[in-house]
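Entry:
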Amino acid sequence: MNRPVRSALWVLLVGGLALLATVAWQQFTRKPIADAEQQLQARQLLAVLPGQSYDNSPLSNPLPLSGAQPPKSRILAAYRATRGTAATALILVSQVQGYAGPIRLSIAIAADGRLIGTRVIDQQESPGLGGRISDPQVNWLAQFANRRLDARWALKRDQGDFDQLAGATVTSRAVIEAQHDALRYVDQHRTQLLGGPGHD
């Protein structure tokens, strides 16, 4: 066998072994990576709830969604938090159209209809403008905590109760509408979401 053929065979052999090693490594790491991503998503969703407010694993039992979707946003998922046998809160995953793309939110609503808190899960808003909705230093979302359905769910400039995120009117309005929609959705489907009249 001449030298060029031997060299070509070695290249093929080394390339084949490298390919096999890459495929094996992907198979070996696929599950740990998927598990880590799932744990990160779970932490993001549950971050809106105080830890002492529930003792179940809310994300292990997604609630069925029924009825029409809200007018300005979409409810993607709902979960019930309980303490003992009593429902304490609901976590809704909501999506609304922002200025630059969809904004996904985790919205926690107490069993009494009060908004506990909201966290941004994903957004593509302009950095330095709408992108600041998830900035903990700005903490714009804090103003919605403890508000109920009867608040005026609009910006102050639109005769509402809430401050605008500076330079991000479209983003501000979208997030306010998503939270208002979530509160209305819970109000309309209380029995189904909270597990019956005993949880009111």
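The first helix runs from residue 3 to 46.
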